[in-house]
Amino acid sequence: MELSQFGRVLVLVGGVMLFLGLLFVVADRVPLVGRLPGDITVRGDGWTLYAPLATSIVLSVLLTVVLSLVAWVRR
After folding, report:
1. pTM of the model
2. What is the pLDDT of residues 22-64, one digit of tens each?
3. What is the residue-wise DSSP string for the chain?
């Protein structure tokens, strides 16, 4: 891999990390995310297990639709 291609990959990875970081910052302000029926929370003495099953499914469907639209527009 050439150095310029490696630089582009690093910029892309940095952009993705920036987007994910911003998403984590505003995630508490988005209604229902993490509190959907189907999200499992189990609490014990000094520990918590959280499995966001429904949230994962909803996000997967939304990302699939968005990426499909992007692929369709690029054709």
Report:
1. 0.59
2. 888 887 777 777 778 889 999 999 999 989 899 899 889 999 9
3. --HHHHHHHHHHHHHHHHHHHHHHHHGGGSTTTT-STTEEEEEETTEEEEEEHHHHHHHHHHHHHHHHHHHHHH-
Tokens at 28, concatenated: 């508490």
**Measured between alpha carbons, how far is residue 68 from residues 15, 18, 46, 62, 65 in Å?**
21, 23, 43, 10, 5
pLDDT at 1 over 80: no
In angstroms, the first-to-last Cα distance of the chain is 27
State how far the Cα of 38 lies from the Cα of 21, in Å rounded to an integer.
Answer: 25
Q: What is the pLDDT of residue 30?
A: 74
Q: Match 């970081």 to its residue by tokens.
A: 21
